[in-house]
Fold these 3 entries.
Entry 1:
Amino acid sequence: MNRAPAVRAQGLVRSFEQAGGTLRALAGVSLTVEAGEFVSIMGPSGSGKSTLLYCLGCLDRPTAGTIELGGEPVEELDDRSLSALRNRRIGFVFQSFNLLPTSTLADNVGLPMVYAGLSRARRRERAARLLEAVGLGKRLDDYPTQLSGGQAQRVAIARALANGPAVLLADEPTGNLDSHTGREVMRLFGELNRLGLTILMVTHDPQIARHSGRIVRVMDGAILEDVPVPDPIREEGSEESKRLLELLSHFGSGGPSE
Amino acid sequence: MIRTAYAAQLVSIGVHGIALHKLRSLLTMLGIIFGVAAVIAMLAIGEGARQATLRQIEAYGADTLYVRAAKVIGDQLRDAKRAGSAGLSLADAAHLRAAFPFVLDVAPQATVDEKVVYASREPKATVVGIDPAYHRLTKQLPDAGRLLTQSDVDGARRVAVLGPSVARALFLHEPPLGRAVRIGADQFEVVGVLAGRAGAAKAAEGGVQIRTREVARDVYIPITAALEAFPRIRDAADSEKDPTYHRVREMIVRVGGTELLEPARRALTKSLARRHRGRQDFEVIVPLEILEQSRKTQDIFNLVMALIASLSLLVGGIGIMNIMLASVTERTREIGIRRSLGASQQDIMGQFLVEATLISAAGGLLGILGGFAISQSVHLALGWETRITPLSIVLAAGVSCAVGLIFGFFPARHAARMDPITALRYE
Ligand SMILES: Nc1ncnc2c1ncn2[C@@H]1O[C@H](COP(=O)(O)OP(=O)(O)OP(=O)(O)O)[C@@H](O)[C@H]1O
Ligand SMILES: [Mg+2]
């Protein structure tokens, strides 16, 4: 296992030029997440949680400060290298699922593999296994519009895992789900985390945050407090999670096992 | 391996995008379709005309020129006759042969306005009085029997050589050789039947209209016999109807090389004008010059067509740009999603460029089919010869792909430069 922290950010500033002046969405955030940690980020709306996540996931560039992923600094990387990094090492999960409505589930899950250069056959085979692991193995050729919210989010999680990432970045993954389905997603996160996947999750829901091992509170672009969760909820693995466990033990982490 | 899988993926994304908006894509393609169809048809018509002309020149030789009887009407005809000109004559042919060392061969022709009859069958036929030089210059060969000879001409013998169609129409399955056909009041013995040469027959179609007669329907008799047997004098107001004027309708003159055509034309014109008492009752035609002339006409035609084609392609290109910009905006969120999953700016750029190129290439393909249809219709409706060359198809395909690339560039760059976060938040 890699000794370097999965994520290390120092003095992150992200400001937006606006009509009224400069808005600092991040005003000097320093955060270290060790490999294998499951961290919740909480805070009021507009406090900069999403911005932080996007910066850490190399989707946005901070105005100032440094980011290291697995010990490697990313400031100097060009768009191509950053994209490759995002593709192999990061998995994004969003509140609104963000599936492509006109593509099948298999194609949605296979999308990150496209940019990793996998052949169509390999993509489909792998997407089939991932969908199987999240309990949607029979719906490869269905479309996202035919899914419930919980199912859609599971497809999105399968997609985030497509290239065997080291870090999962989830922006309010349960925000659009009822509490029951939300807990299901948390069970999945728990299993993935136990497999060694580092997870950073933004949430408003304290109950959801209790599934993680550490809570970082953000306010006006700065970290307010950073505390461990005394007694994290560890839900027992369902059938699905067991399948996932089995599957992902083949995958390893940090890039597709080609 | 990775690259081909990736390229295949880009194409499949593009096809997917087009398939989602079939009607929109088709409408977008219209400009390209018309542009490419115009290019293909234009090149096909140009090439067809060129081929027809070349074949014709090839059939009679590039180093030939024609002396043709010009129409003389009314007072001018009376005036010319009074001055002592009888129009083109056999004597003119003999003079050209003797007077100019660079004239290698002269083939005079006299068309006879009579029907050919055998066993009460009168097929459509043209009776032409010739001498053996005509066979030589037009590269005719006998299929059966023999061609006309100098002694046929010298003796003004009543013999005939038939074109293959006429022979079939007159004799059906009888062997024609040795039988007599009636032309006017005289009986002519068939001594030969021409081989049906596709080249010679085809040369008469389209292109430069030097001869419009169908050779297969010709009946050849010695020119002397023609002049002797059909000397009827009619009172006529123009030279076309007066058989005493222009006993010879046309002469094919072969010179020693194409570089001699122009000097020969001038020398012949001068010499014949003197013999005709200064009356311009003939014209000297150089087929090669006509080819040049038609090439110039063709160039103007091509310029107009090229203008239409480029305008059409421009409009098509702008249409593609417009639709691609709409598509990029429509798919802003998709772009954000793809970026979040690891697509680079280049990947996004490539995706939209490929889509634009696919649209224009598909338009190009339909345009090529349209071009086939247009040139076929032109051929059927106007009788022009058309020919679609592989080069023109390659050109059309290239041009349509280029239009997609050029006009897809701006929208694709716009898509690639989008901020991923903004794109993800786009509703
Ligand atoms: N692209 C942008 N341009 C201008 N301002 C922005 C942009 N992105 C974010 N902001 C501003 O930065 C601040 C932080 O936004 P961010 O989305 O990170 O908040 P958040 O903590 O995720 O809020 P929420 O809980 O509502 O999702 C907000 O004030 C927002 O308006
Ligand atoms: Mg947010």
Entry 2:
Amino acid sequence: MQKVHTRVLQIAGNVITVAATDVGYQELAEVRSARGTSLAQVIRIQGDRVALQVFAGARGIATNDEVRFLGHRMRISFGPHLLGRIFDGSGLPRDRGPALEGNWIELNGPPVNPAKRIIPRKMVRTGIPMIDVFNTLVESQKLPIFSVAGEPYNELLARIAMQAEVDIIIFGGMGLKYDDFLFFRDTFDHHGALVRAVMFVHTAADPTVECLLVPDLCLAVAEQFALQNKRVLVLLTDMTNFADALKEIAITMEQVPSNRGYPGDLYSQLAARYEKAVDFEGAGSITVLAVTTMPGDDVTHPIPDNTGYITEGQFYLRNGRIEPFGSLSRLKQQVNARTRDDHRTVMNTMIQLYAQCRDTQEKQAMGFQMSTWDQKLLKFGTLFERELMDLSVNIPLEKALDLCWDILARCFDPAEVGIKTSLIEKYWPSRPSSH
Amino acid sequence: MSKDGRIVAINANMITVEFASRAIQNEVAYARLGDQRLKAEVIRVRGTVADLQVFEDTRGLRHGDTVEFTGELLSAELGPGLLGMVYDGLQNPLKKLAELHGFFLRRGTYLDALDRSRRWDFTPRVQPGALVQAGATLGTVPEGIFTHKIMVPFSLRDTWRVVAIAPPGAYTVDDTIAVLEAPNGIQHNVTLCQRWPVKIPIRAYAERLRPNEPMISRIRIIDTFFPVAKGGTYCIPGPFGAGKTVLQQITSRYADVDIVVIAACGERAGEVVETLREFPELEDPRTGRSLMERTIIICNTSSMPVAAREASVYTAVTIAEYYRQMGLHVLLLADSTSRWAQALREMSGRLEEIPGEEAFPAYLESIIANFYERAGLVRLADGSVGSVTIGGTVSPAGGNFEEPVTQATLKVVGAFHGLSRERSDARRYPAIHPLDSWSKYPNFVNEEGVRFARQILRRGHEVNQMMKVVGEEGTSLDDFIVYLKAEFLDAVYLQQDAFDKVDVATPLERQRHVFNVVLHILQTDFSFPDKDTARRFFLELTQEFKNWNPTLFQSPEFNQIEARIAQRVHAALTQPAPAR
Ligand SMILES: Nc1ncnc2c1ncn2[C@@H]1O[C@H](COP(=O)(O)OP(=O)(O)OP(=O)(O)O)[C@@H](O)[C@H]1O
Ligand SMILES: [Mg+2]
């Protein structure tokens, strides 16, 4: 028999405190109030005072409401029956399907033993040159899209997901606008991907705390599929809402903030999620693509900053383009040596020249005289931006590499680009196209 | 009286425990959870209540649960068989854990750090009756390419007499190989292994020396411009993605030391996997053997328990000191010290200590200083010399070096390799900033020349800044050439291709050779008719060097290109190229 507690000692933010003993750390409880029933999780024990974070929020909870401990932690039922389903941030159905039963798995399982991971080896082709050529996406990579509000980050996320060859897609929405939720659902549906997808959706209208569970639900399910040899792609949008929810709880618990109000363990919290990305030795893989909107377009803001220190690079979306400078795929070198022998050189040369072009553009903006070299750089920049950076470009990697050579040849002499002679001989177009 | 205590509070990875008899600061205790035991360390004692950091996930622990105090400080196990191992922060062998539990790290499983069944060929080095002190060699066993010294335990004080010593033969790490006796008659059995508390430096040496021998990393910008000495310390702060880890990975492969201890502290598991999977296949350029034979990995990656981050750096430095005691040169690479500092910050917050800057504890500075102080070049009692060199990365919030961890580190290290966002964005790798970085160690390549080269870099930078204001047309040809020279030096010498199998590592001899060629060009007074000609000359020269760097040192191709470079320089001097 589970004991029912009916005296709430304290209510602050979304955290309530009850007097209880024999409660396990992080155990779940059910809180019944006039507003309905909500799950809550133990986040601190001090003597017989137990603090619980209430998923539906503490609004409307009365000091004599019922709190019943469930004797287990947050969990989700796992199995093929999840496919095609849509749930909320507590793991309850959001579609009209049946409630989940049986085969429970706990969230936030233990970390993977590094000795059981393997070095990622497979490129994920996206057809986007700024990714495939310059910052190749790799299976099992964890990678956020850094973006300011208003950029088409959800479109980009959906496009990569639809183009990537994976077995299962797990979608996690945090603080998602309802329209965006519908956009994803319809896009999946349109591409016939819904049947191999599971969606956990917390919308902007839902209680904040539920947002915290979304990544954990997604990743716990993803992990199980990966153990069954599936290649899983997890999409998380928007992790900034997740981090803000963490901040809210930390402030309620009167933790000393470390940086702009964010808790000192923000790094560890984010890492615990992103590190679930994995390529298992002898089983499947989890690739994590996330969105991190940058408050004030500031990459040094604690959320993008901590994220950048955790993930394996980032795609920097700005003005509708993937920026070549802020963007980085740290796993690209695992795969781009085996794509084509000119891949790395082309990638480096193009970026170095484009960096010089940016300097020249600045000089030009200040009204300086342009040398012959400057003219060449400017031409190069224009072609690069128009023919490669534009997000509407959709060509396979090999075509994109050829196009890079073509652009180089249209702008420079072979001796000016700093490429090894052997590659010049092999790839430098004798007659570049004349656009 | 019972040595047990009871949990009275739980806050994330901190538990508060009421104890009956006594508690020792930094002693190990185990929280019992069903049949599992979760390792923890006492970090504060007040009255009859102790605060403990738990090295595991605390989920499921309850008020009133039992905690066993062990009386032993958090310690590392030291003995033959450490080399080539991959441990977690508490020195659990990860491969064994994988055999036992498969994919995941189950909490509460603690395995022996050293293989209990393996036998080592012991050769005694002392006779019964000999008088010995802590750290003295009693015998040796071969461990891979090294002669592993079996030493008098560092914890023994004063002088002991050897009562018995085992004959040559094969022994396990638990077999007694010597019996020692103190003047007061107490006897001590010495086995092949010993334990040492990780937070206390091993000091069984004769004297500390000044680090003045180079620790060649084969990274040109480091060895030539910002060298590190054996027994020295250096730090690599840099924003995310600037190349800290790649630098350390390269160093761990090519550094001119006997043993490398890698402490992967709170960073990505994937990066450790690269080392773990690749090292066994890679050849140690010094010995021709597998790199893994000289490497020890301590990894407590970011999703592993936060409290064990601290343990991981201390375990790593303790193992490094242990091999130093054998007269070996050891390099400890810690990535990233900021994660360890953050773990301290998390605990400090839970202890409700008064926070310092950015909520880091006030004692952060002294902890960092004490850690780097464990590096050093030492002369041992037998006259041999050993060293621990420490290189730590720092991950400053927002990439801003004006933050507590970077600042505390800069105060105590001997060299600073600061990575810059502009350089990494422009793919100028390694992104060590050539003007901001510094080293207090002697230059091993060409001191005069480096001073000159650095001046070119500084002036080139100034000209570049000026050009941003007055434009190229407002810059004199002479200034412009200085700028081109600086860019040239940067492109062909400071930058190094980590993915080219030759260019990735430049041995000292080659550095000296190539640097002198570059220096000669920097010191040459060129007179070009105009800026375009000058630019073209340096672009082409850069191109030649880009072909040169990947050739094998002193191969025919190498010599050919070198000759071509000389010709070009000569040609530019004698007959200025006509303007295009
Ligand atoms: N020397 C180099 N040569 C070529 N590429 C490099 C070099 N150094 C870094 N890079 C590129 O930059 C990426 C990031 O480097 P690295 O992982 O070392 O950064 P970091 O400073 O350790 O970042 P974090 O603080 O987030 O761990 C690499 O994956 C690689 O693509
Ligand atoms: Mg790193």
Entry 3:
Amino acid sequence: MKIISLVGLVVLSSAVGCSKPNPRVETRLNEDARLMGELTPNPMQGKVITSWVDKRDSTMSTLYGNDAAVNYARRNAEMKYPAGSVVSLVTWNQQEDGRWFGGKIPATPKSVEVVSVGTGYSYQRFEGSPLKRVENTEGAAPNERAAYLLSQRAAVLP
Amino acid sequence: MALASRAFLWTGAVVCLGFAVIQLIRPELKNPPVTAEIQAPEEVRQILRTSCYSCHSNETKLPWFDQIEPAYWLVTKDVKKARRHLNFSEFGKLPAAQQKGLLFEAVNQIQMGAMPLPRYLKVHPEAKVTQDQVAVLRNYLVPPSTASAAPAAAADTTAGDAQYGKWIKQSEGPLEVQKSPNGIAFLPDYKNWKTISSTDRFDGGTLREIMGNDVAVKAIADNHINPWPDGTVFAKVAWFEQPDGQGVMRTGAFYQVEYMIRDSKKYASTKGWGWARWRGTDLKPYGKDAKFTNECVSCHEPVAKNDYVYTMPIGGQQ
């Protein structure tokens, strides 16, 4: 009887005992994915227009806009942004989500591209860690890459 | 002295009697027939049989020390609950997509140390899933060869295009959205919140943006993210991925938006978060009744120590 009660006690105490923490659950920010460098403002201060994933180079991109750009893109299918619009594409290298096998999340920034619409169009590209401007083009018409970014329709957000 | 030892004897007698009596309280634990056992390679089934079947199947075999109360009572409760969530003996009856989802969830629960239940592992160390066994399960779900496979064929964009066409025109008139069955009202402003991360969920073929309201964004800036302050709200938006045939997956049709709303008092019974989800562009509330939140909480359980939040936020929104 005594042995049995002992077993019972062991089972009961282990039932209420605690387990050691799993490193995957440790609370932290995704510091490596943060946009650092010659970039003002941080595009993540804007609102989302759409996003995509490129399986060929394992990157994921989110297209952000300032208020002028977002208000336009969510109401107009023609994609002719008005002056004052700023559209930015952030492209991250991907990593497996340590907390969810079956998902990928941003690892490190690969590039940031910023298109500003005024009387003309400017296109800036930032790369590296910390991010440095590697391209700055201005013109009466958007360059090919800027035109591509400006042609992306907004994701449906009911 | 005599009094003390008599008291000791009495206590001993009462404990033993109590122990004997609770042996008589036996909830019933039957093994119903195995009707649709999981179909998977033998090495995968072997792992599940060793580590999961005692709770997640109709083939529960309890060792003698689990047959003794109060262990028996605890185990019975676990087995009944476990079978309701996931039963490998009736697994084949589920739609294929749900089977796949549950298997991904199973790997995640193992990797995060949530399954087998830690309290069970203490008494059944042989049920622990080893690193090698985890690799077997992962390779079964995502064969290593698929990583370099040809790009997915271009998707039929008709549904996504039609949805976009409707949405872009009617964005003036707000929808009349029903409350979630647990009484939570829809928060239409989520689309103007800042993004805190994004996910490419190749397990279910969706792309997601995770947004946070101002309270969430400030908590990130201050790095006060466990626990998250009252007033924090997260919205997670999911779209079906739409392959272009060249390796790019775009956001296709809108799938759902779901929320976690922090109010440690009001939502104390659901881990301090109000859970709610709306599906489709008509924003139909998810869940038959208020109990749908069990589903949310049990899948977020492996990150309980991270305040039930999966996302690792990226800072810089302020």
